[in-house]
Design a protein that fits this description.
Largest sheet: 3 strands, antiparallel
Helix content: 40-55%
Low-confidence stretches: 195-210
Structural class: mainly alpha
Shape: extended
Mean pLDDT: 81
Order of helices and strands: HHHHHHEEEHHH
Oligomer: single chain
Distance between the termini: 77 Å
């Protein structure tokens, strides 16, 4: 289909006059080049196209690194021109203390809270419900206990007719199940390679003992 479209459009190479040849993969290069030249940060383009290494993304673009850098700097200048100037002032000691204190409080019993600075906790610290909780794999047993306890509480509420509690408990149960699934589907961390003791030949042993 691409070849037929190029032929009908009479698109030819300006050097030898032969019809241009396109593949579907070429459109990735065209997209990346156009996006970066129009101000999209290279690392954002990397995420969009799914590259593991940003150098692969930069290799796809049909522009020189200098052009990429200049396009990115122009993007930053445009973005900063739209922001209030007081955002770029030097923070006070109190502001720094508050900012650093936010990160010190991100560690919770079930994992790490990814809530943005100066934003409220939308779930009133019911972390198991929150999409901003990054669960710690080492706390899987704790999460499983919470999940089982919630299931027992739902059964008790249904048995006793406490209909006002059931809905909230089910939301928490769904959150606990989601966190467990998040841990279970996370790729395992690489195990450090242990080479063990090194072997030495007779001459090396002789030198080592003397």
């Amino acid at each position: 289909m691409l070849t037929d479209a190029v032929t009908r459009a009479r698109l030819v190479d300006p050097v030898d006059g032969r019809p241009l040849h396109y593949t579907p993969h070429d459109f990735r290069r065209i997209f990346i080049t156009d996006a970066i030249l129009n101000g999209l940060p290279p690392h954002i383009a990397q995420i969009i196209v799914g590259h593991q290494d940003i150098n692969v993304t930069l290799g796809y673009k049909a522009v020189y690194p200098h052009e990429t850098i200049q396009a990115h700097l122009a993007f930053l200048a445009r973005r900063r021109s739209l922001r209030p100037t007081d955002e770029y002032r030097v923070p006070t000691d109190e502001e720094w203390t508050e900012f650093l204190g936010h990160f010190e409080k991100r560690k919770v019993s079930l994992g790490t809270c990814a809530r943005a600075f100066a934003t409220p906790c939308i779930h009133e610290h019911a972390c198991v419900r929150c999409s901003m909780l990054w669960p710690d794999p080492h706390q899987r047993a704790r999460l499983a206990d919470i999940r089982d306890n919630l299931a027992d509480r739902i059964a008790e509420a249904e048995r006793e007719g406490w209909l006002g509690e059931i809905e909230g408990l089910r939301v928490s149960l769904a959150g606990a199940d989601a966190k467990l699934a998040q841990i279970d589907h996370r790729p395992p961390q690489a195990t450090p390679l242990t080479l063990g003791p090194t072997r030495t030949n007779a001459s090396e042993t002789h030198l080592a003992t003397h």
